[in-house]
Specification:
20 strands, two-stranded antiparallel sheet
């Protein structure tokens, strides 16, 4: 019995020592975790980090839609579905800044597209990168930069400045029925370079000035990344903006050079929308000589409850053989290299605030296509009710005449292929939606 007591006593003592050891290890881990958390909090205290986003969802009804099983060149039926991105892009982002002292800050921004229809993030939801490198999560913005008395400098993946300005120039700052989306995506993407469909630009560095005499200037350069030369894939853009007393005037210019390659990752679908797959030959004899030049002039004026907006966008390629309608060269796919583009887009809009929260807008967009000798148009009317600073509900009616080869649909949609127009059929659409930002 005594021996048993001694064994139990020894066992209890051993268990006690082990328990103390475990408590010590646990306490050490808790202390380490606490220290790590404090360091993280301390780091966040030094940097201002914000999670933000936009959620845009609507119910749509569209006529002559390809999703009804119709083939190119025929008249489709009506489609009723849910869709996101009709009014604003659905997106999720993180941005932040750190005060470096003396009025200087370090900044970063990571932003990606988001589909509310399936929860996907990145260009995989509607425009896969197509460069055999997957779909990036932060496809819209992925930048780091500095700001101060000299203005702001950012480097990385960015939205094309002329596209952003064209978007803001609209009387209705929205996707559908805008010259920014129809012009930049259909005619402003004629070159295979570092600009994804003419909107998402890789390897770009930009400088934006501080405001002086109500004016800002922005300059950007796109690095081509081609060995032995700075020409292929490179680009340059410039934008000047004046804003005072309800009036905004702006002008921009951009040149993007063709890739020094005889292949393209882009092929064309029957309705003119892009499809991405393995590179296919395009037969360029001197691809590095091809360039796409874009220009922009816009004006916007708020007067009492009225809003007036107008802009002109130009798109023209050079270095493409026989780039004339008489030679029979037409855009088989706007996104392909060797595509002949010579067009001028026009947008005029009129808005009226019925109440401080209710705004109506009538908008008209046309594109004079000098290559295909057609002038596609999109007409639209909308009502938007602002429920709060972050939330609005809206109704939008659009009509596209179906002309041209750029795939102009009545509605711009980020993921529902069933609303794409069939052939050159006239398309009417109605959307009722809600947009919330945070």
């Amino acid at each position: 019995m005594g021996n048993n007591k001694m064994m139990v006593s020894a066992s209890s003592k051993s268990e006690g020592n082990a328990s103390q050891a475990l408590r010590g290890v646990f306490a050490g881990r808790v202390t380490l975790l606490a220290a790590t958390a404090l360091l993280a909090v301390s780091g966040l205290a030094q940097a201002d980090v914000t999670l933000y986003g936009i959620a845009d969802m609507s119910a749509v009804s569209v006529s002559n839609a390809a999703g009804n099983g119709a083939s190119a060149g025929t008249t489709g039926g009506n489609v009723t579905s849910m869709a996101d991105g009709i009014w604003m892009p659905s997106l999720l982002g993180i941005k932040g800044s750190e005060d470096l002292g003396n009025g200087m800050k370090a900044n970063f921004k990571l932003e990606g597209d988001l589909s509310l229809t399936n929860g996907q993030m990145g260009q995989s939801i509607y425009f896969p990168k197509g460069m055999n490198n997957g779909s990036p999560m932060f496809d819209r913005w992925a930048i780091v930069g500095l700001s101060g008395a000299f203005g702001e400098v950012n480097a990385g993946q960015q939205l094309d400045p002329l596209f952003v300005q064209s978007f803001l120039n609209g009387a209705r700052v929205a996707h559908s029925g805008s010259l920014a989306l129809n012009g930049q995506l259909a005619y402003g993407s004629g070159v295979n370079n570092n600009s994804m469909v003419g909107v998402f630009t890789n390897d770009m560095i930009t400088w934006k000035s501080t405001k002086f005499y109500d004016t800002t200037v922005q300059l950007g350069y796109v690095f081509g990344g081609a060995a032995g030369t700075m020409g292929p894939n490179s680009g340059f853009n410039a934008l000047i903006n004046y804003s005072a007393n309800g009036l905004n005037l702006n002008a921009g210019y951009e040149v993007m050079h063709q890739s020094n390659s005889g292949t393209s990752n882009f092929t064309s679908l029957p309705n003119g929308a892009p499809s991405y797959g393995a590179p296919s030959p395009v037969g360029l004899t001197n691809p590095s000589a091809e360039t796409l030049t874009k220009g922009l002039v816009g004006a916007k004026y708020n007067w009492n409850d009225w809003l007036f907006a107008a802009q002109v966008n130009t798109f023209k390629t050079s270095g493409v053989p026989n780039c004339t309608a008489g030679a029979g060269v037409v855009e088989t796919s706007i996104l392909n290299p060797a595509t002949c583009v010579d067009s001028t887009g026009y947008e005029v809009g009129l808005g009226y605030n019925f109440t401080p929260k209710l705004q109506g807008v009538v908008n008209y967009v046309s594109m004079k296509d000098n290559v295909s000798n057609v002038t596609p148009t999109v007409s639209s009317i909308s009502l938007k009710y602002t429920m709060s600073k972050s939330t609005s509900v809206w109704v939008l009616a659009d009509r596209s005449d179906g002309k041209g080869v750029g795939g102009w649909n009545a509605l711009y949609n980020d993921g529902a292929a069933n609303v794409a127009a069939v052939g050159n059929a006239v398309q009417n659409a109605l959307a009722l939606g809600m947009t919330h930002s945070f």
